[in-house]
Amino acid sequence: MLLGNILAQVAPIELPDSVPTAKQELEMLKTLPFDELVDTVVRKMVTFTIDVAIAIVVFIVGKYIIRKLVSLLQSIMSRRKVDRSLASFLVSFVKIALFFILIVTVVGIIGIETSSFLALFASAGVAVGMALSGTLQNFAGGVLILLLKPYKLGDYIEAQGYAGSVKEIQIFHTVINTPDNKSILIPNGGLSTGSINNYSREEYRRLDWTVSISYGDSVDAARKAMLAICAADERIVKMYVEDDNDMRKAGISATNQYAQAMEMCRPNTEVPWAQRGWWHRLWHKPELGDKPEDLKAAKDERQRMLAPKVDRSARVYVSQLADSSVNLTLRAWTRNEFYWDVFFSINERIYNELPLHGINFPFPQMQVHMTPPEADDAPQGPAPETVPPVYDTQHAEGQPQG
């Protein structure tokens, strides 16, 4: 009862329907007495000064945090070996986005309404996006290419009707150099959504030769001669691509014999793995040669999981029985960097060495048979005489008399 009586005596508080605008506040200030007006102005100035000071502090601290975050992002991308163009773009994008959020926050602390700013930026973004739809598509394509890496610098690609080596990957387009040294700029939008033929992605490629021999020549002799040519070239894979790759890596490392000899002469001061402390063994992985049984087990496991090797030795097939020749197809595998050198070299050797084994190369020929006319078809009687024209000397020179 007592609480009800107290609530009944309290006058109800009327809440404003909406927040007064600046004009309404100015009208309210005009109706106030001078003392209250001065007090209100001073109070608002003190509040505004405090808000400005807080906004300045927030801006300085936010700027410091943004600088640290950008530096951290740059170091992470440097350790991850992210493409330089992509790293620069991502750092700039993150920096602009963080500064935009910071400015909007500082403006809100001062007391300025931020919804209008956000609406303005949103409408401006929509307008710019509609005006630059194609450019933004190329921009998105460039980001996808830099992230997914369907090709890299130096790769020989074929796309959008052009073929050449990739010289530069930019945000909006990719620059390629054709074999005759022409620079072509291809928009990244089409490259990110279209088909790309990357000739440099795989380490090994297959070569195909088509050799035409005459009917009657020995196919076995031609096959043996071509296989002997391939066997004599060290750049051609003899059996398995994996074995050829291992041998070439061993050959590359064996060329630097002096460095290896100096390395072997250097005294070994490292402590064996079994004699190291438990703390070191806890935080460090065993090095190569420390645990041979573990390394052998891991190697056997990897070999077991790998697919079986495929025979990539040179082969010769009878591909076509043409009108005037028997077409043989020679297939062999080689490393990507040897492709054209091997192709032209084997072409020349086939042309020079196959005739030594009795193999002939047919080529188009035309035979013309001329038969003399028979006696019955010969013309009868003397040949008609040709009467020369008679010219009048009184007329102009070169005009016959009528």
| Strand proportion | 5-15%
- Largest beta sheet: strand ordering: 4-3-2-1-5
User: Can you give the helix content as a percent range?
Assistant: 40-55%
What is the H-and-E element order?
Answer: HHHHHHEEEEHEEHHHHHEEH
Oligomer: single chain
CATH topology of the domain at 23-131: Helix Hairpins
**Basic shape:** elongated
Descriptive notes:
This protein is of the alpha+beta class. Among the domains are: about 110 residues, Helix Hairpins (Orthogonal Bundle), CATH 1.10.287.1260; about 45 residues, SH3 type barrels (Roll); about 110 residues, Alpha-Beta Plaits (2-Layer Sandwich), CATH 3.30.70. About 50% of the residues lie in helices and about 15% in strands. A 5-stranded antiparallel beta sheet has the order 4-3-2-1-5. It has a 3-stranded antiparallel beta sheet with strand order 6-8-7, covered by helices on one side. Strand 3 and strand 4 form a beta hairpin. Helix 3 packs antiparallel against helix 4 and helix 8 packs across helix 13. The longest helix has about 45 residues. It is elongated and about 140 Å long. The relative contact order is 0.07.
Q: How would the blueprint of this fold be written?
A:
Elements: H1 2-9, H2 22-31, H3 34-79, H4 84-110, H5 115-131, H6 133-148, E1 156-159, E2 162-169, E3 173-177, E4 183-187, H7 188-193, E5 197-198, E6 204-213, H8 219-232, H9 241-255, H10 257-265, H11 278-283, H12 292-305, E7 315-321, E8 326-335, H13 339-353
Antiparallel strand pairs: 1-2, 1-5, 2-3, 3-4, 6-8, 7-8
Helix pairs in contact: 3-4, 8-13
